[in-house]
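Recap from last week: sequence in, structure out.
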Amino acid sequence: MTRLARYVHEGGRHTLLWLLIGLTFFPFILMVITSFKDNTQFYRSFFAVTLPLHYSNYGLAWADINHYILNSLIVTAFSTAGVVVVSSLAAYAFARFAFPGKEVLYYLVIALMMVPGVLTLVPSFVLVKELGLLNTRQALILPYIAGGEVFGIFVLRAFFATLPEELFEAARIDGASEAVTFWRIALPLTKPALGAIAILQVLYSWNDYVWPLITVFDSSLKTLTLGLLDFQNKYVTNWGPLMAAYTIASIPLLILFALATRTFITGLMSGGLKL
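Predicted structure tokens:
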């Protein structure tokens, strides 16, 4: 292949990549542009930026959805912390301890990954109802932890199992307890995997719609996904505030990915190599 042909080939690849990037970000850019418009500007200039910019749309949106955002932050933070803690402890036990029936129990846990979530929807609802947790934050947090820890155990067990046994033996010789070796040796070496699991759990908890819809009824407890639906019904013909609400709702996830993308990719790649 001549140099000119290589340049043409590389130029075509780069053009295609930039086109795909543009198509990916176009809906978000259009949402942000629309969030500064009133209805007249929206219908006259659908794609273009129009003046004046209506910053008041964000004030209207924030006033109506700020408590929904707080609810989502609480549910997401506690469920993510629960998944990381429970899955890391369970995975460490499966990887480093020897006890009767360990492999059978592990494969029974992992088998839950093959069960579609829709099949567990009704049993989970009945269980939450029998425990008297309906219309509480616990009805969201506890099932999220129970559902997210299976994948966390699957990934973290592979990490813990590949750690050199010499590290743990040296720690035990120095008098370290099992809790200390877990906290000081195992966890620091699995930070990429912990980060990847945390990010996936944040996405799931933040974006889930069906489970909050059937377990939470009070407006003061609704998460952002339900709050946006209520807001959409209120501003169904007022596109500016509606798009402003969607923009505000997407900001936390954008910040998360901006700060944790490297950790997320490293964790998934390392997990793939170890698995």
